[in-house]
Amino acid sequence: MAQIARTPAQMGSLIQRARRRKGLTQTELAHLSGLRQEHISRIEVGHDGTKLASLYALFAALDLDLLVDIRARDPSPGIDDIF
Amino acid sequence: MAQIARTPAQMGSLIQRARRRKGLTQTELAHLSGLRQEHISRIEVGHDGTKLASLYALFAALDLDLLVDIRARDPSPGIDDIF
DNA sequence: GGCAATTATGGTTTTTCGGGCATAAACATA
DNA sequence: TATGTTTATGCCCGAAAAACCATAATTGCC
Fold first, then answer.
1. What is the rounded CA–CA span in Å between residue A51 and residue A48?
2. Do the Cβ atoms of A65 and B72 come within 8 Å?
3. Tens digit of each residue's pLDDT (9 = 90 or more) over A63-83
4. SS3 A4
5. CB closer than 7 A to strand D: which residues?
6. Are the C-beta atoms of residues B58 and B35 closer than 8 Å to each other?
7. Above 70 in pLDDT, residue B51?
8. Mean pLDDT of chain A
9. CA B4 → CA A78, B33, B36, B67, distances in Å?
10. What positions of strand C are covered by protein, i.e. any atom < 7 Å from a CB?
11. Is B22 left (phi over 0), alpha (psi -120 to 50) or beta?
12. CA of B47 to C1' of D22 (A)
């Protein structure tokens, strides 16, 4: 099930969870994605200045997809959406 | 149904389609989102340097949601996914 | 507690975005 | 074709990201 990321902080949390699910450290993900560990740290914390290119680099390394949908009418979060 | 945006260009196309669906010009969307028309043009064309903040500004104005999912095993595009 | 690994943060430099303004190119349509 | 609208592109410049390096803070484990 796809997760909504309505803020950079939520996006960061989702990335962090995906990374941990794969058993990767930030440094390992950095090597895989071509970014730097510090950069990944800042993204995971929730940095709204992150560039699309950086996001896509992480998504490719983590086997994630970015989806676009019309805004859900019911914004009530599922159990899994609380970070 | 959510659309996959695997590249900045695909993301741009989705934004453009959402904008047109709402009957907005780039200039009108610029006013709604706080960005500039030139900026939106570059994003729609597919600009990988776009910042998350800009993306979220557009998404809010267009009533779109950003979703994250584990990469689909079957990448065959639906009819609607061909731009 | 103590140690190693991991993550977060600070400073500096380089690179690039995005605002701002102008204008060309594309598009519609009378 | 001509005119008006919409979109794309070029340049300059200030602001900010990201590389880079160092190191502090945190976490996990013995």
1. 9
2. yes
3. 999 999 999 665 544 333 333
4. strand
5. A 34-36, 38-39, 42-43, 47-51, 53-54; B 20, 25-27, 37-38, 41-42, 44-45, 51
6. yes
7. yes
8. 89
9. 22, 23, 26, 9
10. 5-11, 16-22
11. alpha
12. 33
* Cα distance between residue B19 and residue B14, in whole Å: 9
Q: Beta A64-70 vs B3-4: how paired, if at all? A: antiparallel
pTM, full prediction: 0.88
CA of B24: nearest nucleotide by C1' is D6
- Residue recorded with tokens 């309505």: A6
Strand partners, B67: A4, A67
Tell me the residue type at B13.
S
